[in-house]
């Protein structure tokens, strides 16, 4: 297709105008999904033989489709793990697209990969891993966890002929993220869950390992700890677990996809003690490091092991192999070949603002959780389920049944007021439906929190 098929200047202005409006808007509405049939009825056929024209397609986007979206950076979007990409990062996401960078190999993507690596060096420095540790940006925590699990498994298999024919086994807690279970399935690995949504303690893990059958013990190759559970912000006993891994020669992976941002903070960083002993660490900059989707990261203590697991071979790729002569090839260290330089927006944002601003913004999220905890304690109709942890707050509306929480969520969403969804909290063997805040956006205010809690009356 020729570039002149589009009125380039006019379309560029339109897109820039849209972007500027979106970036400077202080009151974005929380949109709602519509059924696919409803959207189809609104926009009609958009993919036709001769095209409907950029102006027309863009109009449909603005008028209908963009409104069927929940802007994840809305200050009263406190469900799941929200996001709040910086303007600098968003602008450089546009630059990343416009620059047509192939991010797999240094030979083609050197300038972009250099920037990614500058940002990565900073991420690695937060973990305290020894010299030589490094990582790559992935599509997210799921891909990062998979890349780490496969690296660990391939390393374990390389240790003996026996291991090569065994199905591997990993241990994590039931509080670990769903992607750990899903990716163990992808890698065809058995997974054993220590039954706790609370902090996974070293003695629990020790007991679990002791109770394994001899065959299970032989197959066990890795422990996955969580550095900030997605549901409640709980950090496992990383130091104790690291020591058990060292003693038993097990791979130690820390999933800090959500919580990793807190490594920047002064106030809670100590809770991550032991992370510096990890073999691999997942951190999602698209969660608590203000990057646009999608941007995850996997960091390895020994990068060479990742290369052994992930480097792709093919005669058409031979030219890229001479890394020593050229530079760092991100495709060698995770599951993806062709990739966007998705760390580039993070680099620009870090370069623009400096890391102190990141520290302030992340401390604000932690502070907001503390503020919410205090307000909840002071209000008679709600109570804390457990103390706030990182930027997560679990609380209950006294007297409410699961359906009340759901109705309240849908009602607030319908009004475009807030998106706060229920979750479950397990005490003993019973699951209770409760409400949950997760703070990421530093622009969320005390007033926002109060308004949301007041809507539970
Ligand atoms: C969100 C999350 C993941 C998955 O990350 P994606 O970027 O959604 O793939 C994994 N682990 C934890 C702890 C998470 O919070």
Task: Walk me through this protein's architecture.
This protein is an alpha/beta fold and 457 residues long. The chain has a domain at 93-353: 3-Layer(aba) Sandwich (Aspartate Aminotransferase, domain 2). Helix content is 43%, strand content 13%. The chain contains 17 helices and 11 strands. The chain has helices at 8-24, 36-43, 54-65, 87-98, 106-127, 141-159, 161-165, 178-186, 202-210, 214-219, 238-248, 285-288, 303-310, 344-353, 355-378, 402-414, 446-454, and strands spanning 134-138, 169-173, 190-194, 220-226, 251-256, 280-283, 296-300, 382-384, 392-397, 422-427, 430-438. It has a 7-stranded mixed beta sheet with strand order 1-7-6-5-4-2-3, with helices on both faces. Strands 8-9-11-10 form a 4-stranded antiparallel beta sheet. Strand 4 (220-226), helix 11 (238-248) and strand 5 (251-256) form a beta-alpha-beta unit. Helix 15 (355-378) runs parallel beside helix 17 (446-454). The longest helix has 24 residues, at 355-378. The radius of gyration is 23 Å and the shape is globular. The N and C termini lie far apart (58 Å). 44% of the residues are buried. The mean pLDDT is 95. Bound molecules: pyridoxal-5'-phosphate.
């Amino acid at each position: 297709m020729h570039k002149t098929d589009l009125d380039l200047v006019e379309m560029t202005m339109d897109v820039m105008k849209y972007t500027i409006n979106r970036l400077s808007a202080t009151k974005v509405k929380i949109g709602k999904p519509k059924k696919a049939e409803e959207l189809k009825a609104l926009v009609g056929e958009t993919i036709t033989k001769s095209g409907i024209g950029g102006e027309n397609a863009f109009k449909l986007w603005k008028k209908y489709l963009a409104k069927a979206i929940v802007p994840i950076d809305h200050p009263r979007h406190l469900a799941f793990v929200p996001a709040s990409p910086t303007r600098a990062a968003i602008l450089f996401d546009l630059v990343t697209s416009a620059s047509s960078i192939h991010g797999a190999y240094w030979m083609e993507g050197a300038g972009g990969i250099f920037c990614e690596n500058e940002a990565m060096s900073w991420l690695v420095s937060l973990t305290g891993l020894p010299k030589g540790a490094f990582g790559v940006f992935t599509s997210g925590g799921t891909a990062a966890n998979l890349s780490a699990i496969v690296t660990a498994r391939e390393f374990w298999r390389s240790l003996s002929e026996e291991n090569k024919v065994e199905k591997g086994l990993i241990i994590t807690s039931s509080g670990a993220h769903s992607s750990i279970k899903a990716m163990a399935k992808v890698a065809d690995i058995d997974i054993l869950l220590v039954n706790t949504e609370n902090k996974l303690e070293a003695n629990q893990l020790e007991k679990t390992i002791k109770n394994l059958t001899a065959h299970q013990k032989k197959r066990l190759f890795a422990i996955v700890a969580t550095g900030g559970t997605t549901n409640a912000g709980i950090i496992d006993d990383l130091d104790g677990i690291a020591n058990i891994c060292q003693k038993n020669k097990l791979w130690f992976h820390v999933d800090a996809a959500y919580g990793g941002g807190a490594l920047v903070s002064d106030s809670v960083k100590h809770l991550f003690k032991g992370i510096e002993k990890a073999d691999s660490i997942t951190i999602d900059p698209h969660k608590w490091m203000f990057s646009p989707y999608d941007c995850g990261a996997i960091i390895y203590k020994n990068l060479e092991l990742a290369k052994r697991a992930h480097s792709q071979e093919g005669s058409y790729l031979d030219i890229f192999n001479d890394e020593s002569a050229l530079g760092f090839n991100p495709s060698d260290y995770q599951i993806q070949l062709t990739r966007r330089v998705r760390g580039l927006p993070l680099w620009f944002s870090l370069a623009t603002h400096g890391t102190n601003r990141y520290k302030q913004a992340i401390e604000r999220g932690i502070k907001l959780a503390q503020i919410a905890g205090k307000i909840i304690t002071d209000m008679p109709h709600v109570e804390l389920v457990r103390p706030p942890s990182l930027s997560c707050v679990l609380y209950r509306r006294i007297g409410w049944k699961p359906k009340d929480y759901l109705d309240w969520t849908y009602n607030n969403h319908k009004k475009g007021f807030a998106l706060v969804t229920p979750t479950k909290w397990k005490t003993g063997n019973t699951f209770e439906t409760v409400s949950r805040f997760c703070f990421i956006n530093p622009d969320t205010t005390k007033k926002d929190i109060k308004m949301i809690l007041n809507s539970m009356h």
